[in-house]
Structures are given as structure tokens and as C-alpha cells.
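Async update (no meeting this week)

Hi team, since we skipped the sync, here's where things stand on the single-chain job. The sequence we agreed to prioritize is pasted below, unchanged from the tracker. I ran it this morning and attached the output directly underneath so nobody has to dig for it. Comments welcome in thread, and please keep replies under the output.
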Amino acid sequence: MGAPAGSSVTLKCIWVYQTPGLMAPGAAASIAHHEGTETVQIGDAVTTDYAFDDPWELMPGRWAVRLWLGDRKLLEQSLPVVKK
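Output:
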């Protein structure tokens, strides 16, 4: 998508957590979402992932991931997170 092919663009990736959000040990408030950016080439495939590095991050429920280019949402996908 976009022109010219091969040009760089910066995508914003937002992970939205199940309400009430993630609660880090010792934190005063929960975390509703995580936001990051990645520079990619137009025309290339893009992947994103989330790693559960700490046990407190494993909040069961429906999470969502959203990819944005500026103020234009390119993708939104929800997924279940299950604690076993």
C-alpha cells in the first residue's frame, strides 16, 4: 500500500488489554495498552507479536492489536488470551 514501493513508513502498533488492564507489581495504576512504532518498507509483509515476559502480564480475556499509519487505522484484530 502506498507509493513509491520500497519507501519507508512508520507504523504505530497498539496492544489493548482486557479491562481492567495489566497491573505491574508495585504500580499505582493499571496499564490499559502498550504502544510502539516500527519503520517498515512499503510493499513488505509486516508482523507483530507480544511476549509474556512476566507472570503479571498474563491477563485472560479479549485483547486487541491495532496497526496505524498516521491517523489511519490499517488493521484491528482481537484475540483471546487464556491462562492455563
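Quick observations from my side:
The domain at 8-81 is CATH 2.60.40.2390 (Immunoglobulin-like).
The chain has no helices and four strands.
Reply here if anything looks off.
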